[in-house]
Amino acid sequence: MALYPLFADLEGREVLVVGGGEVAARKIAALLKARAQVRLYAREILHADVAQALADDRLERLSGEFDPAWLDAAWLVVAATDDNAFNAQLAAEAGRRRRLINVVDDAALSTFQVPAVVDRSPLVVAISSGGMAPMLARRIRERLETMLDPGLGPLAAMFGRHRERIRAALPEMKLRRRWFERMLDGRLEQAQAGAGSAGLETAFLGELDHAPDWASRPAPGTVALVAAAAAPDLYTLRALRILNEADVIVLAPDVARDALEPARRDATHVTALPGDEDARVLERARAGERVVYMHAGTASAKGACARILAACGQASISCRDVPSVGLDRA
Question: Which of 47, 92, 187, 222 is the most buried (most CB within 10 A)?
Fold first, then answer.
């Protein structure tokens, strides 16, 4: 590992940005979002967003000839100019002062890299290629954007707000881990979809109140009902996430195995017989596994799904219906 991964708390701390163009504008926007105190040196302001930030007093512009002493007050330095000779001098000055610097598009001169980011604040995922292949990092970020539910952000914030209460209710690490997995496996999805953040908070606290009783029982499984799509690229993002989390996939008799192409490779595949779908699903869910029932969306499949939903309700097992797109329904 050539680079040491690091998330920096820049709130109220000075960061020096050199440059006034489009690249500088992107860097400034991210730094302001992190509540850094941005100081800017630029001979010309070439981007409207930078000009607006200056007009709104959200950053300070330094004037005159560049003064290397400005580096002494900075926690980080960003060089976003196309003057290679100046960038090299700036990197040397930063090195002498032991200041970390990012020289845009020049990994050799940089002492820190700015990663591609998936923002589900307070959950943040950063991807870096060490400056070797930025486009690869961006492509991976694009894929992660589709995999990480936007609802993870509010959920992560609740975990933080109620951290001490969670520890008090579940003092053992093993039980806390099981409870976290339960919450992340779609337990609160319906509450969030139905009532927004207020409903999510109420459901979260309700689950936490019952956590000690729940923790004393064997780990519960979960069930998701997923309609098989006509082609792999027609699955909804939610369906793709669920298929990649499944321990067991129970196939309806009329679903071809080609429909499993986007699913987790090491998941167990079980083909149900007509009429025993609910029994097969419940058997695996009661064993603590994450079960997906994949059906064809036909009239008979709707009947099987209704039976599974009812059986899960009686067994107090979480069950959610996740349709795909592009499916011709009978």
Answer: 222
